[in-house]
Amino acid sequence: MSEARDTVLGTIRRSLGVTGREAPRRDAVEGRIAAARPGVIPARGQLPEPARVALFCEKAEASAATVARVASAAEVPGEVARFLRDNNLPATLRRGADPDLAAMPWGGTTIDVTAGPSDGSDINGLSRAFAAVAESGTLALVSGQDNPTSLNFLPDNHIVVVAARDVAGDYEAVLGRVRDRYGKGTMPRTLNFVTGPSRSADIEQTLILGAHGPRRLHIVVVDD
Amino acid sequence: MTIHPTSPQFKDNAHRALEDRDLQKALGHVRQAFIAKRAAAAEALPEFEALRDSARDIKQHTLENLDLYIEAWEDKVTAAGGHVHYARDAAEAREAVLDICRRVGARTVTKGKSMISEEIGLNQAIEAAGLVPVETDLGEYIVQLRGEVPSHIIAPAVHLTRDQVEADFRRHHTHLDASRDISSHYSLQAEARGILRERFLAADVGVTGANFLVAETGTSVIVTNEGNGDLTQLLPRVHVVLASIEKLVPTLEDVGQLLRVLARSATGQEMSVYTTLSTGPKRPDDPDGPDEYHVVLIDNGRSSMLGTSFEEMLRCIRCGACMNHCPVYHSVGGHAYGWIYPGPMGAVLTPALIGVETAGHLPNASTFCGRCESVCPVRIPLPKLMRHWREREFERHLQPAAVRGGLGVWGWFASRPKLYRLATGLAMRALSIAGGNRGRFASLPLAKGWTDYRDMPAPQGATFQSQWKNRRAQPKRAA
Ligand code: SF4
Question: Coiled coil located at which positions (chain A) (predicted)?
Fold first, then answer.
């Protein structure tokens, strides 16, 4: 073990007046990590599904995202084509290997869809959210081949598909699902919480969208 | 220390700031922008005050068990394929980053906004090693172009006007058409976006800070609005996280509690745009992400604040609310404070980190109006802590000079157990670094009157007080 490590931990222990071997402290720390108690959860997001999804849409729009709702996965390509057309964007799309996205009827549109991570040259990226949070209109995306993290940040326009049933009330419910999927104490390489498109107010506190990440965030909620 | 503090000249700095018309114009935006937004965000969440209590308790509990949480966190980082490097001080932290850069043959280093990077003077060290550090947060990029340090912990360029930024871009971006129109906020941001996008894609190492380190999972968390931190950590081969020891929290749920007060207190947002939880390097089937993930865990004076009245300062989550609500900050801006951390949090933290001899004026930069404490999301009693420093300074100057220089200081400290613990703890750390192999000192900042006449032996190991505390803390044996 490094000398610096010993010194840092040693000074912490001296200052706290502890040895690090006290059983009650060790039990308290282990117990707290094991329990992962939720703490104070705002009542705002604790709603039945229809109202929860409506709150998510309202909050996402308040964060400057645009939101569309479609009745089924089959309608997603048509909605994406409309979004691209209405914003005068090229009919191209980059997505990951997500099977749900791949299974959608892209052939019914003129969009040129390619698969893989982004190298920075893509105008439009498409992802599928792992979950969403009604409380603040936040999307949760996990890294991996299905939805490469680079698609969340490099394209100018990011379109994210989320199933209505994946919209949770609060972050803690999403963290619980992450734990179910990856195991307690284990995480995907990256979990991104995204609330609206990129922005900065660094010059005179004047808010401008599209600082380094996407200028537009378009969310498609699938209701079925 | 590569950033030379001008804190001793606080009064001169403040006078100059008051006469600086550009600065005064720019500071108007702080008063207008932040206060109403925070108030509205707090108002809109009925549980906000309860969440502040929760945030305070989480940070306080973690500090009281910091040794154990660090060990638990380190195990998880390692299990996820990451590497932890401990740094006792700024020099060790810089060296840890440079070692990694040298090993991978890096040329360009992109950087997400990180106050600890400013504290350790990392950019200067990277440049001195012949590499190019590129700040990527818009405000940090602007202050880097100007050769300045941030004047605010979340809005680094808040001291500047749009006209000044335009002039800086014209001066530095000389490869672009001189007749281009960059008179709007939008066009300035778009120009920076274009230039920095190339840098992101070309970088070999990305350095970010961390808002939180999670013991449960070995995760580091960054919170940004621009997305620059994400591009910084995602695209290069190597991601280096710089974090000071007080960033630890126990669980993911604790992060949820803290996030709810962080953005609201900082910018009045309910959530910042990007909250990113990173755990280890790229996995076998990942199509993107860094090959290596390192955390440099930095002490630099903090461990000695534990167990003292200044321990509470370590709850700080760097939201900036205290400076946004401070009448002194509104009047003089951040640079007058003379080091990295301005406003009320700087007035308490800076003397603890660089010494009250250098930063003793800062705790006086207060009207004791109490607004900082009333908005601090982790309820740090900032005015009380400033008063502690003031009392200490005041009484120091009441002593006759000769006594003040030597044993008098010790006598005064010794009658104040908590301060004494802090001072000896800090001095112990400083001395063991400064003393190097020699084990003796020819001059000491706190004991000049003493060392003018004799050398002082370098302390070995723990102070008597902390040893005493250690013993008492050991579990009693059953009779
Ligand atoms: S002291 Fe409190 S208000 Fe100031 S930056 Fe830290 S957490 Fe925010």
Answer: none
